[in-house]
Amino acid sequence: MKLMKTEDAVGQVLCHDITQIIPGVKKGPVFKKGHVIQAEDVPVLLSVGKDHIYIWENDENHLHENDAAEILRQLCQNEYMSASEPSEGKIELTAEVDGLFLADTERLFRLNRLGEVMVACRHSGFAVKKGDKLAGMRVIPLVIEAAKTEAARAAVGTKPLFRLVPFRELKVGVVTTGNEVFYGRIQDSFTPVIEKKLAEYGCRMAWHTVLNDDHEKITAAANEMLREGADMVLCTGGMSVDPDDKTPLAIKNTGASVVSYGAPVLPGAMFLLAYAEGNRPVCGLPGCVMYAKRTIFDLVLPYLVAGVPVTADQLAAYGNGGLCLNCSVCTFPNCGFGKA
């Protein structure tokens, strides 16, 4: 790369985009990288403040910003993502499907700690829609040493930094529990909430039963749904520590492997997560899921629908950010709930 007076640069090759900004009208490149400067271009370049211009000189020890950005893209992009064309050293990734966006935050930190290169992404662990912006990456200097991109490769390794896991169209079984509902003392207002949340992810309730607080019946109903092919079973109600609350015992007796009974999230502390044969989730949903705007169920449901296992460590980590502030206008997931 060589700096020249603009008037002397006719016939030379631009090594970067030249941006023109007209407030309220335009912001974009007036000339693109690789453009051969003509005599008629000189007044235009001077009008955008370019009294001097960088022209390209080949150097095997350095990379142009766009070429280096392409290396960053290779380190970041995985399936179900599309990439923009490099422009001024920047590339953006966009979702090609609805799914769960996941970032390896430790390796992302190592990359950004190198300096002269940067990658920024939306928060990991949340649902995205097709067309959503996922990440952006940029090279800071116009020209970067090739050794810096090699250091980036070493920091990231061969596995891409980001994953987008498509959502599955699950068939879900719902076991509604509680004497008050079973005997008709109150209306079942829990099941409609569950159906609505499932529909947000393209899933449907294929089995439903209402039972009293008999743990043997709850166990039998959940197991029957699993035998008939349910991809997930949700048991609603009966999740507290009252003597009549038998749902946790019923789920344990299905034979499913319990990940955790309880989570450091409010609302949703009494949530229970287990996995039956075939890694099919069996969940006990506390009553707050019925009336609170957002709960622990909203944090884990994208993982369950994507088929990404939820671990006890992940649940424990929700303690940092796991307090919903119950805002008068809910903006979830564009808020701090569930984000460390």
From TrEMBL:
CDD domains: MoeA_like. Catalyzes the insertion of molybdate into adenylated molybdopterin with the concomitant release of AMP. It holds the Pfam family MoCF_biosynth. SUPFAM superfamilies: Molybdenum cofactor biosynthesis proteins. Keywords: Magnesium, Metal-binding, Molybdenum, Molybdenum cofactor biosynthesis, Transferase. This is Molybdopterin molybdenumtransferase. It comes from Allofournierella massiliensis. Belongs to the MoeA family. It catalyses: adenylyl-molybdopterin + molybdate = Mo-molybdopterin + AMP + H(+). Its cofactor is Mg(2+).
